[in-house]
């Protein structure tokens, strides 16, 4: 693929222009009159290869990286992890998986800043490895967001039923289903702005809880200094020992799911070479403050054997709720539930956004039905949004199985898929650097360089594969058929999917010298706008025609 692409590279416009195919403007605007900067800016805001709009600002992406996907998985699901493993186990789990997540983000940062065009690592899997490999990665990533979204709808309806059961659970689901669908149709600017403020509320809420926890365990609430009491009774590792530690890893993977979403959003960012590295650096604080901080204070304020963590009726409760109750503030339960509801609104919004973009890029790359690759004039992938939102109806399985059991099923699916995707990203990074070396490319071309390469990429790959294989070992003794299938079904399904796709489409594993290192690069819009100006609309139209021709050649060679 890359050899052919290099043969036609001489016909491309200069790098500052080649990655900026624009959108054809209305006939009323196509004249020889001078082109105003605002018209030019609007033309450049639509990504020509995916149809999405580059409307996310740097602050939007930074806040998404810091707190965007924090939701019921952390605030409610941590209760199940605490009950299974104890306070020490969740800190170990968050710490180990956090290190893996950081290594993956280093790899992703390097890849995304140089190739920010549509599809992120979903498209790069095709280029760096094999189209069949990209097929498996893409659908596993879709499963991640389908499972996460279903869990978030599950928690929203559970919270509202807790307040009032006059409306059935499915009724609440339908209300929010249509509300989120309508909001997503407003476009990426509305999504980014909403996520910025909701993420800010989540950060402030966690800070308030951390302060409360310090005061509570010090005896400042009711005079009883709790300290590290719950680490002694019922114990740091609860009643399950190492089995508890192992069972926590899959929960933690689900909580971290979405940390890589900034790469998918990079296509809709005005200045990815500035915004993505900045967002990557925010990940460290997300791991330390949000995840490890929450794990530490949950273990301090809530005993692992608290009956309310998983109630007899199958309902889920947050460790925050139980801590407030133990402190003697019964009415505080409603405050915590309100906070959880806010995090759910943000998390559902983010899940639909990332999930729909995943489907969009898959469809545009011939790995899903073609109609799912349609975008409207606002840059919204309408049918992809409808599809991922419809999959959220899986959450209604809790009507028959109970919220906690449904949550457990969903967690296993999303956790395994997360490990598979992370391993794939690390592997892509290793392949990318090998291609750079074989093709005698300079590392100075990279806007962002990963730390400690290749060790950090190798670490991310090996640990992700290892945890994907061992996360379900607790189902062997005693053997539970349902839990075993739920824990491991995606691994053989992924292998079978890879083999079938490879056989049907006769794809092949790219050699390092064949990997294309040029197509898909894009400069920041602000930088581009400052150095390029078209004197007339005809100049822009000519550039559009040239870029369209180049892109058509590229797609034909890729096919």
TrEMBL record:
An MF annotation (GO) of this entry: amino acid transmembrane transporter activity
UniProt KW keywords: Amino-acid transport, Membrane, Transmembrane, Transmembrane helix, Transport
GO cellular component: membrane
PANTHER family, per database record: AMINO ACID PERMEASE, GENERAL AMINO ACID PERMEASE AGP3
Compartment(s): Membrane
Broad class of where this protein is predominantly found: membrane
Topology class, membrane: Multi-pass membrane protein
Record-annotated membrane-spanning stretches: 63-82, 88-105, 132-150, 170-188, 200-221, 241-262, 283-300, 339-360, 380-400, 406-430, 451-473, 485-504
Domain Amino acid permease/ SLC12A: 60-509
Name this polypeptide is given: Amino acid permease/ SLC12A domain-containing protein
């Amino acid at each position: 693929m890359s050899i052919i692409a290099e043969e036609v590279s001489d016909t491309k416009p200069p790098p500052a222009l080649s990655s900026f195919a624009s959108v054809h403007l209305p006939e009323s605007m196509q004249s020889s009159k001078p082109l105003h900067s605002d018209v030019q800016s609007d033309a450049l805001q639509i990504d020509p290869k995916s149809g999405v709009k580059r409307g996310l600002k740097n602050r939007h992406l930074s806040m998404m990286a810091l707190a965007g996907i924090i939701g019921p998985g952390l605030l409610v699901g941590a209760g199940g992890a605490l009950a299974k493993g104890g306070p020490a186990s969740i800190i170990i789990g968050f710490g180990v998986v956090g290190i893996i997540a950081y290594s993956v983000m280093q790899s992703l940062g390097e890849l995304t800043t140089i190739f920010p065009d549509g599809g992120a690592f979903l498209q790069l899997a095709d280029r760096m490895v094999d189209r069949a490999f990209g097929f498996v990665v893409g659908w596993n990533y879709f499963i991640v967001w389908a499972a996460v979204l279903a869990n978030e709808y599950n928690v929203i309806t559970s919270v509202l039923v807790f307040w009032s059961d006059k409306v059935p659970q499915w009724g609440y689901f339908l209300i929010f289903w249509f509300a989120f669908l309508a909001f997503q149709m407003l476009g990426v600017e509305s999504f980014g702005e909403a996520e910025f403020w909701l993420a800010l509320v989540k950060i402030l809420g966690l800070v308030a809880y951390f302060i409360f926890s310090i005061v509570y365990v010090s005896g400042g609430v009711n005079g009883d200094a709790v300290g590290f009491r719950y680490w002694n009774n019922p114990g740091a590792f609860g009643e399950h020992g190492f089995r508890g530690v192992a069972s926590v890893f899959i929960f933690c993977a689900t909580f971290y799911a979405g940390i890589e979403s900034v790469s998918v959003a990079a296509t809709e960012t005005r200045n990815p070479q500035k915004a993505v590295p900045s967002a990557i650096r925010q990940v460290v604080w997300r791991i330390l403050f949000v995840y490890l901080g929450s794990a530490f204070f949950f273990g301090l304020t809530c005993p692992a054997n608290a009956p309310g963590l998983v109630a007899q009726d199958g309902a889920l409760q947050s460790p925050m709720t139980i801590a407030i109750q133990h402190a003697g503030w019964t009415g505080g339960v409603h405050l915590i539930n309100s906070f959880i509801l806010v995090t759910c609104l943000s998390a559902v919004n983010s899940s639909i956004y990332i999930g729909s973009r995943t489907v969009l890029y898959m469809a545009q790359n011939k790995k899903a039905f073609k109609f799912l690759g349609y975008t409207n004039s606002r840059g919204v992938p309408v049918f992809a949004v409808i599809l991922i939102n419809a999959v959220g109806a899986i959450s209604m399985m809790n009507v028959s199985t109970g919220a906690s059991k449904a949550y457990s099923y969903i967690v296993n699916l999303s956790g395994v898929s997360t490990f598979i995707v992370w391993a794939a990203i690390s592997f892509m990074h290793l392949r990318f650097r090998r291609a750079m070396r074989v093709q005698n490319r300079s590392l100075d071309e990279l806007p962002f360089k990963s730390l400690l390469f290749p060790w950090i990429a190798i670490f991310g790959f090996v640990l992700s594969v290892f945890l994907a294989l061992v996360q379900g070992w607790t189902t062997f003794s005693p053997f539970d058929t349902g839990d075993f299938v739920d824990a491991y079904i995606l691994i053989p399904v992924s292998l079978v999917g890879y083999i079938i796709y490879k056989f049907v489409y006769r794809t092949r594993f790219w050699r390092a010298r064949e990997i294309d290192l040029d197509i898909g690069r894009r400069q920041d819009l602000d930088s581009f706008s400052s150095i390029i100006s078209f004197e007339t609309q005809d100049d822009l139209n000519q550039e559009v025609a040239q870029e369209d021709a180049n892109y058509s050649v590229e797609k034909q060679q890729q096919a």
